[in-house]
Specification:
By secondary structure, the chain is an alpha/beta fold. The protein folds into 3 domains: 2-86, no CATH class; 93-328, Endonuclease, Chain A (2-Layer Sandwich), CATH 3.30.870.10; 343-507, Endonuclease Chain A (Endonuclease, Chain A). Helices cover 48% and strands 18% of the residues. Helix 14 (343-354) packs parallel to helix 15.
């Protein structure tokens, strides 16, 4: 009862109620106009027909086209106006321009090893072109002079992160989608408070929707009393604004400019298995030490200054000059809806399309568009061993139903799909041919590929690549292989619901 009362009086519920009221008002206005004004009805029919033709001929993903065309044809009185209000696949021009301006400012100071990409072209052109694409799409240089370390579980990351935080001397940057009270955050916060008192600069950024039910609205004021600069990304307001869809899903921890962490982990106790909500929580992370950390720093600062509408020209103060030995080729990268690129999605597809022997993937959600399904099925039908691990215990039942709805075309093509039996696998990784891997924050779904701000690290001939594949093999032993029988729900209403969800999945 206490949880129910807390939910009903919480900011998320109240905000959603106000959003729902606004939706109802819009529908009532549209309905009234259609009944009272003859030309409105005719106008919306004509507008819907024009929009359907326009959508069918634009350059957007076919899945988005279908998701909008169907409601527009069935409900033309409502479909056309709603499309005009909410259809933006990118942030508007003003926001886009601001983000690009901040990016241009901070990237000027990125250390660039121009000879590294040239070296890759001589070593393996098929690999080099994948790094080249990400380098151009998100201005992400390729680095050597960087050590890498992989963590197969959140608790392993937690121990190392605490160790490195204790060494901080100049600054600590943290950017996370979710932060929740508990042992993990309490321990980290105590270190941040102590370090701030010692003169270390602390900056913390978290997503409002990710933490809306977890942290108080005025939490930044409390953190400020400890000397911790805090910003909340994209506050969740009760206004029908398409920008509400764009969330900061990144996970970044940077210490003194030469130590950086990223991966699927947020700062909450389920990620380190101190509490178990959905069985064992399987998540992963990587640590970088060296020049490549500069890109993580740049990624953090770009969104920080965008969120605070600040001018910035001191990035050089946050670039470390410490030297570290090389551990293969390392390319941290960022992705977001502002640049018109699909860096995360096409980075994954590049590895899938170029795989020669195998490509192995872990993802908590498998909600795919036609291009990704084509890439995976083509690889499998070409003789590449394609394996995907998803959760067996879901955190969101609707998303789990949608994930399973995507199994059929993949299984038919020979893709092997497994579900992690001990609990929920939250790791977002891809590894191929014992050579190349990406560990990051992007799920295999529409939100990560098209709507969220994400980040990741691509590694080639790094020790992390072997560690990722070794971890995948161990995880596979704890997973159940799926087939048409055990992935298919016999309830016809459930299957029909899956079909509907699949159609509208780009809009969910």
């Amino acid at each position: 009862m206490k949880k129910l009362i807390k939910f009903l009086t919480g900011r998320l519920f109240i905000t959603c109620i106000f959003l729902l009221i606004q939706f109802l008002i819009l529908f009532l206005v549209f309905y009234y106009l259609s009944n009272q004004i003859q030309y409105y009805y005719i106008g919306t029919i004509v507008a819907s027909a024009i929009l359907v033709i326009t959508i069918a001929n634009d350059d957007s993903n076919p899945s988005f086209k279908i998701a909008w065309i169907i409601p527009m044809l069935i409900f033309p009185l409502f479909g056309a106006p709603l499309y005009l209000i909410f259809s933006r696949s990118q942030v508007n021009y003003r926001i886009n321009r601001r983000l690009k301006n901040y990016n241009e400012i901070v990237t000027k100071y990125l250390p660039i090893q121009n000879d590294v990409l040239d070296e890759l072209w001589f070593e393996d052109p098929s690999i080099a072109k994948q790094f080249k694409y990400i380098s151009q799409a998100s201005f992400s240089p390729v680095y050597k002079n960087t050590l890498t370390q992989y963590f197969a579980f959140g608790q392993d990351f937690y121990v190392k992160a605490i160790e490195e935080l204790e060494k901080a001397e100049k600054f600590i940057f943290l950017e996370y989608f979710i932060i929740d009270f508990g042992e993990m955050w309490s321990t980290i916060l105590n270190i941040l408070k102590r370090k701030s008192a010692q003169g270390v600069e602390i900056r913390l950024m978290y997503d409002d929707l990710g933490t809306i039910q977890l942290l108080p609205k005025d939490y930044p004021k409390k953190l400020a009393s400890y000397g911790i600069k805090t910003t909340i990304f994209n506050r969740f307001h009760a206004s029908l604004d398409a920008f509400l869809n764009y969330r900061d899903h990144r996970k970044i921890l940077v210490i003194d400019g030469h130590v950086g962490f990223t991966g699927g982990l947020n700062l909450a106790d389920e990620y380190i298995n101190k509490v178990q909500r959905f069985g064992v929580w399987k998540d992963t992370a990587v640590m970088l030490k060296g020049e490549a950390v500069a890109k993580l720093t740049e990624t953090f600062l770009q969104l920080w200054h965008f969120s605070n509408n600040e001018h910035f020209n001191e990035y050089i103060n946050y670039v470390s000059t410490k030297k570290f030995p090389s551990d293969g080729y390392v390319q941290p990268f960022s992705d977001g809806p502002a640049d018109g690129k699909l860096t995360g999605k096409l980075g994954y597809m590049g590895i899938i399309n170029n795989a020669k022997r195998y490509v192995h993937i872990t993802t908590p959600y498998l909600i795919l568009d036609n291009e990704m399904i084509t890439a995976l099925t083509l690889a499998a039908e070409s003789g590449v061993d394609v394996k995907i691990i998803t959760p067996h215990i879901p955190d969101k039942k609707i998303v789990f139903a949608l994930t399973r709805a995507n199994y059929k075309p993949l299984l038919r093509a020979g893709v092997k799909i497994y579900e992690y039996l001990p609990g929920f696998i939250h790791a977002k990784m891809i590894v191929a041919d014992d050579e190349i891997a990406i560990v990051g924050t992007a799920n295999f779904d529409f939100r990560s590929f098209y709507l969220h701000f994400e980040n990741g690290v691509m590694m080639y001939k790094s020790s992390c690549v072997a560690a990722v594949e070794n971890d995948f093999s161990k995880t596979l032993l704890e997973s159940m292989q799926m087939d048409f029988v055990n992935s298919r729900n016999k309830n016809p209403f459930y299957r029909f619901g899956q079909m509907l969800l699949k159609i509208f999945s780009p809009l969910l």
